[in-house]
Automatic annotation (TrEMBL):
GO molecular function: hydrolase activity
Entries under PANTHER family matching the protein: HYDROLASE ALPHA/BETA FOLD FAMILY (PTHR43194), PEROXISOMAL MEMBRANE PROTEIN LPX1 (PTHR43194:SF2)
Pfam families assigned: Abhydrolase_1
Protein's UniProt name: Alpha/beta hydrolase
Length: 312
């Protein structure tokens, strides 16, 4: 177990391209930021970002994302919570390995993280694949260590079975009929059409009118650039899981489901909030970056609404 001040860990400060009122203009503006490291029970070194005090709030980023992209949210929430962002295996600052690249192992990593940091109970906030990791964690370990849950725009099942009804597909949020073709599309190796991979997600992976997202992307590129080969290893397993049974039968904690009008699987987000006993939705409009990256593009709005839900 290791923990260092962020500037000591990186050996440098990073100045962001935009100065935005109420947000950090450089890495050192995030006072008390630390980088921790621990080993999982299968011997992998994982890193996490930490700042603040109060009730633990643990972020599980989406596929290819990491703690650097959460720098604005860490800054905004650290006065109310002890904020953690886990860099999952093969992501961000964590070790790159060619084993354990399954969502079930990622959820075991989350359990190892809670044990290593001695977190007895925490709010868990997942985005995209991070939601799947939390669903797997609940499936395997239950909810005893969870206070409240927040899920940001993740389809309960990415893969669409050919014998499903259209209602099943919509509730599941499924948008591909081929895991291999979807991986090729995400890795930029081959073109795709909407009969194989039906998403315009790539259209919104940009920083147009989102300077806070540009800042966090800049930090990511500076300190933890993506390793595309390492990231690809978990994609196949991630695509093929169907979490509707966990969502329907194993979640009872207060749950906030966040999505936007640009989301390709918006109806599935409403289905999640309706099926869990204490669920509600927060839907961003198209005019307020209501796409898959909404919490990173509108961090101030998201932080305020997240804190309101967690502290009510």
């Amino acid at each position: 177990m290791m923990i260092k001040k962020a500037l000591d860990y990186f050996g440098k400060d990073v100045v962001f391209p935009h100065s935005i009122a109420g947000l950090p203009s450089k890495l050192s503006d995030v006072e008390g930021l630390e980088i921790g490291q621990f080993k999982t029970n299968d011997g992998v070194s994982l890193n996490y970002w930490k700042a603040g005090q109060g009730t633990p709030l643990v972020f599980l980023p989406g596929w290819s994302s990491n703690g650097a992209e959460y720098i604005n949210l860490i800054y905004l929430l650290k006065e109310k919570f002890e904020v953690y962002v886990l860099d999952q295996r093969n992501h961000g600052l964590s070790q790159k390995v060619n084993y354990g690249n399954r969502i079930s192992r990622f959820s075991a990593d989350l359990n190892d993280f809670l044990n290593a940091t001695n977190i007895k109970k925490a709010h868990l906030c997942g985005w995209s694949m991070g939601c799947s990791v939390i669903w797997s964690y609940i499936d395997l370990y239950g909810q005893d260590r969870i206070e409240k849950l927040v899920f940001i725009d993740e389809a309960p099942s990415i893969y669409c079975h050919s014998n499903w009804t259209e209602e099943e597909r919509i509730n599941a949020g499924a948008f591909t009929s081929s895991a291999e073709r979807m991986i090729d599309a995400f890795q930029g190796r081959a073109p795709f059409n909407s009969l194989v991979v039906n998403t315009d997600l790539f259209d919104f992976y940009n920083t147009v009118d989102a300077p806070s997202f540009e800042n966090s992307q800049f930090l990511c590129d500076a300190v933890s650039p993506h390793d595309r080969e390492a990231l690809e290893l978990v994609q196949f397993d991630h695509i093929l899981n169907d979490w509707r049974d966990v969502i329907s039968h194993k979640i009872s904690k207060p749950t906030l489901v966040v999505s936007g009008e640009h989301s390709n699987w918006l109806e599935s987000q409403r289905w999640i909030a309706n099926i869990v006993p204490n669920g509600r939705t927060l839907i961003y409009g198209k005019h307020e970056h209501g796409d898959h990256f909404l919490h990173l593009k509108k961090p101030q709005k998201f932080a305020q609404e997240l804190a309101g839900f967690l502290t009510e």
